[in-house]
Specification:
Layout (H helix, E strand, L loop, with lengths): L1 H22 L1 H15 L10 E7 L2 E10 L28 H7 L7 E5 L2 E7 L9 E5 L17 H14 L3 E6 L12 E6 L8 H5 L4 E3 L2 E3 L8 E5 L1 H18 L7 E10 L4 E10 L14 H5 L1 E4 L2 H8 L5 H9 L9
Parallel strand pairs: 2-13
Antiparallel strand pairs: 1-2, 3-4, 4-5, 5-7, 6-7, 6-11, 8-9, 9-10, 10-12, 11-12
Length: 341
């Protein structure tokens, strides 16, 4: 199995690398998704997902999105096949290549990607939030924790650099880093998530709120939104450098409360302005779940799309008890100030 797995991984990578060379990374990832559909690893085509948009009754420019996605409730019971002859690495972490080999028995392979001199591989998410849901996992098994909380955690500037540079190569996707207690469901293994922007969504609620912010150079602060966020817009180098400098200085200003904080980083590509957009949203580690709705809140929720997966929440959707103001209060339950007096 080991030799067969390595050969199949290499063969797929050679094919996808050639496709990336001619048509770009997103084309290679679409082919990876097709491969996982054909192999049987990926079987959720999102046909059972229900999506709704709730508008402010007096201002249609303000809105929140909601999806009922029952398959997401299964994501913590990942399909793993027994293989007694192969010992599990890192407690069976399913983002480790050594475990993928025996857990998925030849149905899942990754596509090797390098950015900033760091090695990753792309996998499809078997419980997708939106079409084209890709996980970019570190080739090295290392924590998802950022260095502000743990000295051996990931350098925050590396997190920014990885996301921004990957986003530039994936302009039709939205990218996330979910910190531990900020929506990360695999805290032991560094990974990013990228979702293909739906054709019907020209802007998520956070993007709309950031369209006309109070600006200060390349930095702006989001207004008229339940969460506080800093946002940078520009070319890759400008965004990486400016966001890194500001967040490092922010950490110094907030040393006393930093141990209790985590964050969501979000990246998009603005085709109209031909520029990267990067969001930094601080999160209180003690408030990882949405109030009033079941679920852990990650980057998509922070963007303004609330994900429901429990039957109880589906009932609330059916009985009309969810509206714009309920979603606003739900998202506001995560509010964490950028600065404190």
């Amino acid at each position: 199995m080991s030799l067969e797995f390595e050969t199949s991984w290499l063969d797929l990578n050679q094919r996808l690398s050639k496709l990336e060379g001619t048509s770009g990374l997103e084309a290679a990832l679409r082919e990876l998704e097709r491969h996982h559909l054909d192999s049987g690893f990926l079987d959720d085509t999102l046909e059972n997902v229900r999506s709704c948009t709730f508008y402010h009754p007096d201002d249609p420019s303000r809105f929140f999105r909601l999806q009922y996605n029952p398959k997401r409730a299964e994501r913590f019971s990942v399909r793993r096949r027994e293989a007694r002859s192969l010992p599990a690495q890192n407690q069976g972490c399913f983002l480790c290549r050594e475990n993928i080999k025996w857990q998925q028995q030849g149905t899942q392979f990754g596509y090797d990607i390098e950015t900033g001199g760091r090695s990753f591989f792309a996998l499809t998410n078997p419980f997708p939030l939106l079409p084209g849901h890709i996980v970019i996992a570190s080739a090295e098994h290392r924590t998802q924790e950022w260095s502000f909380h743990n000295g051996s955690g990931v350098d925050v500037c590396h997190l920014i650099d990885d996301l921004v540079r990957l986003s530039r190569r994936m302009p039709d996707h939205v990218g996330f880093y979910n910190g531990i207690d900020g929506g990360s469901s695999v805290p032991e293994h560094l990974h990013y998530q990228f979702l293909l922007r739906p054709d019907t969504v020209d802007a998520f609620p956070l993007e709309r709120a950031a369209a006309l912010p109070a600006a200060c150079g390349s930095l702006a602060f989001v207004q008229r939104y339940p969460l506080e966020a800093a946002v940078w817009k520009g070319d890759v180098s400008t965004v990486v450098n400016d966001a890194c400098d500001w967040i490092m200085a922010w950490a110094q200003r907030n040393t006393r409360r930093l141990r209790g904080l985590t964050a969501n980083f979000i990246t998009t590509f603005d085709r109209t302005g031909n520029r990267i957009v990067f969001y930094f949203v601080p999160r209180d580690r003690a408030r990882s779940r949405l109030q009033g709705i079941n679920g852990i809140a990650g980057g998509l929720e922070v963007l303004g799309e609330i994900v429901l997966s429990s039957p109880d929440d589906a009932g609330h959707l059916d009985d009309g008890s969810i509206d714009y103001f309920k979603l606003e209060r739900t998202l506001a339950s995560l509010h964490t100030p950028l600065e404190v007096a």
